């Protein structure tokens, strides 16, 4: 397991565009109140390697880091490809998702600063589960605003958080002014990450001792998630693999919502690509919020309440309401500035899948490898299937690394509702 996080900001193809922050109070002033100071400092650090505090290391090891890198040989055989497909198994962590990597770090810093309550938002619930567990590890309370449609679709994630003592509130929420306004303007609003972020920040501002934690979109989150890419490099070496061999077309693939799992996987490899490695990065998003594939590159906010600054990114517009499907982690209207920069500069490719195609890929992985992934991660599997098919046509043998970012056992109802009775849809394994 790496003992340091890797700061890949100097490896970006250019500077992240300046934010627009003209509110009163400004987003920067709001962040000073609700975010632990060291996290703000990590957003702009020029230090290349950041030592991981020992209490964080201890809990990460306790939770199962480093996570396995799994060669998907039966999937390769089924696809008839000579590509070598590897799955980075974040689904094996106690909360079933990669989100725990930064939740533990942020909770540690909040506790060090004397904060007593962690406040955050969550889409599909994986981030909320991770914050709830991390809060308990460090003796803190947790209050979590969960996107309303996801809370209704995935009640067991709420039950998990509540078992850990967390308070879980649907978003838009009647507890906040912005939530009440959204519900007044749009009765029955299904919620989105934009509404939940607004609810959480407003609530944290009014709660003494609160620390607002972000699960994605911020450089400090991407920094903590570089464990993913660093571990992949070391594990591939154990398999005798080296990424970026000329003419092979190697791929790193992850789903993209706020971009934290994507950036954690590809960030440590940006320098190699810039130095000429034949390495491609692919973001798999949902057609429910196809920002990177259909959005416009413009300034906008990730929340609806104006608590965050305007950032330059691929956006569907602040009035966009994503449909209430089963991919809660991918349902946001605006992409982060960093992910958008990679896309705009041609470093990152993107593809969008509807939820049926994604979940069919998830079913295929279960039937071949015995692994059930969350709907979000199944988008990355669908992308890998396409890359492998193209490689077969082109007679190439790439290494394809897929980030299995989350487990799917608490998403079985969604699989059933979308795919129905699938007993006849068997594959030869």
TrEMBL record:
Enzyme class, UniProt record, top EC level: lyase
Pathway(s) served: Amino-acid biosynthesis; L-tryptophan biosynthesis; L-tryptophan from chorismate: step 5/5
Cofactor or coenzyme needed: pyridoxal 5'-phosphate
Residues annotated as domain Tryptophan synthase beta chain-like PALP: 62-403
Listed Gene3D superfamilies: 3.40.50.1100
Highest taxon, organism lineage: Bacteria
Catalytic reaction annotation: (1S,2R)-1-C-(indol-3-yl)glycerol 3-phosphate + L-serine = D-glyceraldehyde 3-phosphate + L-tryptophan + H2O
Protein family according to the UniProt entry: Belongs to the TrpB family.
PANTHER family hit by this protein: TRYPTOPHAN SYNTHASE, TRYPTOPHAN SYNTHASE-RELATED
Assembly and oligomerization: Tetramer of two alpha and two beta chains.
The protein's name in its UniProt record: tryptophan synthase
Organism of origin: Streptomyces composti
Upper classification of the organism: Bacteria, Bacillati, Actinomycetota, Actinomycetes, Kitasatosporales
